Amino acid sequence: MNAVEKWGVFEVSVSGKTDKNPFVDYDIQGTFAGKNETVTTDGFYDGNGVYKVRFMPSFEGEYTYKITGSFSDREETGSFVVTAPSENNHGPVRVANSTHFVYEDGTPYYSVGTTCYVWTHQSQELQQKTLETLSKGYFNKIRFCIFPKHYDYNLNEPITYPFVGKPMDSSVLTKENFMEYDGACEGNEWDFTHFDPKHFQLFEQRIQDLMDMGIEADLIVMHPYDRWGFSEMSQEDDDRYWKYVIARFAAYRNVWWSLANEYDLLKKKTLADWERYAKIICEKDPYNHPRSIHNCRDFYDHNRPWITHCSLQRQDRHKSTEFTLEYAEKYKKPIVWDEICYEGNISHCWGNISGEELVRRFWEAAIRGGYAGHGETYEHPEDILWWSHGGELHGTSPERLKFLHQIMCETPGVGLAPLSMPVFSRGTVFGWDDEVAIPYDLAYRGSYYLIYFGYFRPAFREYHLDDINEYEVEVIDTWEMTVKKVGVFKGKFRVELPGKEYMAIRIRKLSK
Amino acid sequence: MNAVEKWGVFEVSVSGKTDKNPFVDYDIQGTFAGKNETVTTDGFYDGNGVYKVRFMPSFEGEYTYKITGSFSDREETGSFVVTAPSENNHGPVRVANSTHFVYEDGTPYYSVGTTCYVWTHQSQELQQKTLETLSKGYFNKIRFCIFPKHYDYNLNEPITYPFVGKPMDSSVLTKENFMEYDGACEGNEWDFTHFDPKHFQLFEQRIQDLMDMGIEADLIVMHPYDRWGFSEMSQEDDDRYWKYVIARFAAYRNVWWSLANEYDLLKKKTLADWERYAKIICEKDPYNHPRSIHNCRDFYDHNRPWITHCSLQRQDRHKSTEFTLEYAEKYKKPIVWDEICYEGNISHCWGNISGEELVRRFWEAAIRGGYAGHGETYEHPEDILWWSHGGELHGTSPERLKFLHQIMCETPGVGLAPLSMPVFSRGTVFGWDDEVAIPYDLAYRGSYYLIYFGYFRPAFREYHLDDINEYEVEVIDTWEMTVKKVGVFKGKFRVELPGKEYMAIRIRKLSK
Predict the structure, then answer these.
(1) How far is A207 from A21, CA to CA, in rounded Å?
(2) Does B382 reside within a domain?
(3) Judgement on whether residues A300 and A444 belong to the same structural domain of the protein
(4) With an 8 Å Cβ cutoff, are B350 and A433 in contact?
């Protein structure tokens, strides 16, 4: 009997009609039924006469399935068994505690994202290098695009296109003139009613690779950096694209739907378009993967009910993650700062901060109960920049982000909350100047404090939590990645610090 | 014949009645008349039967004077000659170009301030050390208090008191309990109708010392850090104090009136009080010295006509001088950021940023046409912190501030204006990400650009000013204090940068 693990991908392949256009003229659905769930989901045409339906089971045990639709004149049925998830399979990521995340099995998910917009559209050799880098465990989420990207440092052609046809002649492009090529340029010849399955097969292999490494795939389904016209398709073509993408990818447990990168730069799309895409996802994705929409300048209205978390780009030249609390209070959803400037040295203002500054911004997010995203944009002799192409990392931040993740994983319960959040009464122990986080879960209130100083450099700090309990105090150097136990204290106590930037203090109540 | 230089202090001493209380029961005025001005100003009682009247002439040539008042039964008259100002005497500082300053002789004044709140109340030995440090030319303005200060690190007694009487017993004070002593504490015994001239004589000697060094004395006339009750005197006592201070100090050309430090922490003072003090200054100061009032949290309404410039404390934990343009547009007055965190390592959040960060904040102010203030708060074995006590400097910022001042002095005209200011049409040459300043004076428009990158680290920048003129380009390392000529360019050009923080570019049009 066929077997698949819980939250794994169960796929049924069947042959079907090819006399007309299978992408438009035929449909296929699968219904998967176990003791605790019955899920009907769309399949898709994968080329060469083969249709597929994919399913992600949420329960263990025996399942049956039935494949129906106009693609064939006969139904296909079968059965399979769902086994326990393997060790590193915690299920899809869900929102928990209002502004945080857990995997479906209850394990906290502390997001440390990165961005390689079009790494899957580069050479296979470069993609392997990216996978190798990702395997080092710096990140547990990565943002990347289904469509290829046209932008500074991104004038090359992708290895495949999502549609059958041919692209404009890119030999006319230079670093000076590329901005004149925008949207549906002359010379492009695409048949938007014919997807190229190869493009999607290669892409989903990468989703699978990431899943195997425990990395969430934050899929950017639309974006404005375009010379092929993929950002300016008709409503009918857009909707067909969305349904195809969902049918193919939704069964991968690590998929997140990012409706767009910089949605506000897509000149031809209206609010009604975005809301329509969202409706399609909500109808067609049976698994409720995380859904977000990422801004360039103005935020989308993150109060919209279909948005599961706020995927933000900073709006201020100097402050970014410092605004986490304001937005958490406004939207009451997880705050994920997916773009807050990248570590690097390119000319673009969003791509040349230091590793220190990027790591500081991550901590400023974390200490307020938010999450941030990494990117790297160092000048490279072959113009291979992690932010778009993947490859190797050259910066100083990744190791420190891994360290931050480790500290986060040591939080009791799920997620941190800033001490000044209205739900917690702020004691007089911490001055207004300390950025203090405590576990979100009320059960742990008063038992754990994480204090972060950023670029402030106190040589000491004094605390007075209560006169009854004993507290273990550690000094954390977030840059040097050290945790130093400084003692167990009771009543009023003083913690000596090195008077350096990027220090933190962790205080944990000892159980009696 | 007596002689004094233009903008010098001409003083007339006369003996007078002492039978009643000379501070309250007698008055004295002087009228000073030259060809171009006639000034009547109050004098003051200086103890030991001696009354004095001081005058700062604004024109060269012969003057006569007449001293009148109830202090004596006879008038005193005389004459003197006003000579040309000596080389380093440029006159008092005035507002120019809306948001900038010039000395009265037209020399631009680019303010680089520091803060030593109560340096004049420390031992004479320490004061000499402070003067020695100040003589190194890092700063051209210093903020300090007429009253002594009671605060963390400031529990010692001043060398003199402004009034006759005796202070509370300070041996009861500790670092733990001092905050309980606030305002008019038990044990203080002061006669607010009897000034102690010694206190003011010592103080004005320091104003004179600063004047000789070309440093503006930004006098903080009131402040809230008080255990003696000087912050809680009656309206009558306050007004007498203000008049005495003005009569004594107004003739020193380097005096600025800071009505208060953190006026909003003076619990017993009302808006009507501050407005009344301002009225007294405007009536009694014949020379129109700069007038400001400094906040802790809420700004005073800097639109009030008597306020010559905005003396600001940052209101945000992370952004300070980055708000310069917003306030310049709102108040249309010079923006002087007198408190933006100090270089140091003490526990207080406002006193532990790095030299790098403080210098960056100065540049962020400068590039937007504003000015900033320095302070230093490093832990010290004897608790001598520059911010309050003066003494020696231990930080890394002062040299860099001197370098910034030198760069500012090389600005054509008076003052810098951000290129994005509405009055200037913003070209397409500079991206939205560059912080660019040009000379405020329209005459120099298009001929000079100062571009500052702060913590952004581009490895290059491209410019295209026009196709006609030649431009000399320099790369400035604001931290290493180097200016490197990189060439003369025409049309579109690229400037290589080291990809480091704190870099700037200066572009100057070559005359044909």
Answers:
(1) 27
(2) yes
(3) no
(4) yes
Q: What is the pLDDT of residues B305-335, one digit of tens each?
A: 999 999 999 999 999 999 999 999 999 999 9
pLDDT (average), residues B84-102: 97
On whether both A137 and A238 belong to a single domain, the answer is yes
In-domain check, residue A234 = yes
Same domain, A285 and A248: yes
Q: Report whether pLDDT(B426) > 50.
A: no
pLDDT tens-digit series, residues B283-308? 999 999 999 999 999 999 999 999 99
Which chain B residues have any C-beta within 8 angstroms of a chain A C-beta? 316-319, 322, 344-350, 352-354, 357, 379, 431-434, 455-462, 499, 501
- Whole-angstrom Cα distance, residue B335 to residue B308? 10
For residue A201 the two structure tokens come to 């097969």
Please check the confidence at residue B427 and state whether its pLDDT lies above 70.
no
Residues of A with CB under 8 A from a CB of B: 316-319, 322, 344-350, 352-354, 357, 379, 431-434, 455-462, 499, 501
The pLDDT of residue B421 is above 50 = no
Which of these three, B83, B113, B137, is where a domain ends? B83
Q: Is residue A458 part of a domain?
A: yes
Between chains, do A457 and B345 touch, taking CB under 8 Å as contact? yes
Please tell me which residue of chain B has the smallest CA distance to A320: B318
CATH number assigned to the domain comprising residue A52: 2.60.40.10
pLDDT confidence tier of residue A420, bands split at 50, 70 and 90: low
Contacts of residue A357 in chain B, CB cutoff 8 Å?
455
3-state secondary structure of A307: coil
- Residues in chain B with CB shorter than 8 Å from the CB of A315 are none
Alpha carbon A249 to chain centroid, angstroms: 15
Instruction: Among A341, A374, A401, give the residue marking a domain's end.
Output: A341
The parent domain of residue B447 ranges over 427-509
Q: What residues of B are in contact with residue A322 (Cβ under 8 Å)?
A: 317-318
Note whether residue A409 is domain-resident.
Answer: no
Domain count, chain A: 3
Same-domain status, A35 and A155: no
Total residues belonging to chain A? 512
Name the pairing type of β-strands B29-34 and B61-68.
antiparallel
| B156 CB neighbour count, 10 Å cutoff | 17
Main-chain dihedrals φ then ψ at residue B488, nearest 5 degrees: -115, 130
The reply to whether A118 and A61 lie within a common domain is no
Mutate to test the interface with A, among B345, B385, B453 (most CBs of A within 10 A): B345
Chain B residue numbers touching A342 (CB-CB < 8 A): none
Beta bridge partners of B114: B142
A308 touches A332 (CB < 8 A): no
Domain with residue A296: its CATH number is 3.20.20.80
Q: Are residues A191 and A236 in the same domain?
A: yes
Residues of A in contact with B316 (CB under 8 A): 319
On whether both B160 and B236 belong to a single domain, the answer is yes
**Which residue in chain A has the smallest CA separation from B346?**
A458
pLDDT tens digits for range B134-184: 999 999 999 999 999 999 999 999 999 999 999 999 999 998 899 999 999
* Contacting residues for A440 by C-beta, under 8 A, at least 6 apart: A97, A98, A99, A100, A369, A413, A414, A415, A416, A417
